Amino acid sequence: MFSLSIEEMEDENERKASSTSLTSQLLARAVLKQDYSSVAASLQDGEDPNICISYDLGKENGGKHKIPLLTVAVHKGNVDIITLLIDAQANLELRGEYRDTPLLHAIWYKKTFIIYKLMSAGADVRATDTTYGDSTMHLAAAKGNTYLLQNLASKGCPLDNRNYKGDTPLHTAAYRGRQDIAEWLVGQGAEVQPVNNKGLTPADVAKYRKHMKLANWLSENKTISAQPQAIQTINEEKSKGKVYVLNYQEFPDTVIANSQEKNLKMREGAQIDSENLKNTFNNLGYEVKTFQNKSSTETEDILDKIQKNKSLNFLLLFILSHGMSSQSFFTSDGQLLDLNNIKQKFTDLACPQLKGKPKVFFVHFCRGKNKEILHLDSSVPKSEAPHNMITVYASHEGFTALRSPESGTVFVNSLCQVLGEYPCEMLQDTFNRLYAKMKTNGGTTPEMTVSAPFAHFKF
């Protein structure tokens, strides 16, 4: 017995597509090859987006199945082709001969951006797979995705939904050893000691799987009272610290920047990033301060107040906007601010209380294809080189960044997903996971710059 290479497997999948009509074959092969132009042309010619083809999903999923093109695109993680298929009225609930809907498949493979793309398009959040009866809540619990659980629960998905084995999502969390998920479910009112078809409670399952800390916690909390949404409230005195978010969504229609006229569109979906960041960092124990649609003067005032805050032990700052160059972004009054000038506010001389302490900037704005020459303010007699600063950009210099009106930016979605799954890692490890997650979610390649020496920092 021998196995096929990836290339041979793709060729085999293409050959299986030959059971459809000739024109449908062209569409199927275009999806398999992730050929955006050909997919768009075929759909524009009226080809059916709901055809099913034989596709190898790997041994984990039972090998080859006849599945719809949308599930193929989800498996490949191609957001652009998924968008084309959805716009062409692809059936969001079509399974073919496979157990999962496209949404269930996206949740299982942790394709965050695609999950919210499908949900915003109207995918059934209460769908269950046909083999095990697992719901979206079961799969989210299995994958450790707290934010998705919150989102699904807010859409009416029951906390105690049972699969064919009688397992609730809490059973699933116990089986996987995901204490954070178990604590969230119980905190939201999930039944602590439900019994499955084998007579086992989540505590029994955790003990059987040798997750003793979780088993003991579940046993000790048999009568815990529900505290819905308690996770959202952070006591300032008990928080780990503050996270600052500068999010710009609305702008003048036309601005003049660097002697160029530029049209600025509303950043639809930006509010979702604010919600994602608030939920994620609240869950991690931080207080989140969000500032929406501020002018340049208001932004400077906010930064000056942060600079003068004597209680800061670190700086975590998010900047989300339209960009003009690799280091400049627009405020909501159409003015440009320079990221380098902002960093100068937090150098050792300018902000001595943060000397030797970590200062982390997460930046999402298009960094353009043309490099800009940044002019220093001549009124400043000298500049200090930054120390202990890390800047994480959503894209490399010269490249745009991606945002969806329905689900926000790939950058913030991916970061929230990573922090939800791996909340207590060092920043370098977090960035490495962010890099991989953005690739999985069809995003750009993030970039991280470091001004040494940098103190160790973890969320």
From TrEMBL:
Protein name (record): Uncharacterized protein
Species classification: Eukaryota, Metazoa, Ecdysozoa, Arthropoda, Crustacea
Residue ranges of coiled coil: none
Residue ranges constituting the Caspase family p10 domain according to the UniProt record: 379-426
Pfam families attached to this UniProt entry: Ank_2 (PF12796), Peptidase_C14 (PF00656)
Gene Ontology molecular function: cysteine-type endopeptidase activity; ubiquitin-protein transferase activity
Domain Caspase family p20 positions: 239-370
Xref: SMART domains: ANK, CASc
ANK repeats, residue ranges: 132-164, 165-197
Domain of life: Eukaryota
Family: Belongs to the peptidase C14A family.
GO biological process, one term: protein K6-linked ubiquitination
GO cellular component: BRCA1-A complex; BRCA1-BARD1 complex
Cleavable signal peptide: none
InterPro entries associated with the record: Ankyrin_rpt, Ankyrin_rpt-contain_sf, Caspase-like_dom_sf, Pept_C14_caspase, Pept_C14_p10, Pept_C14_p20, Pept_C14A
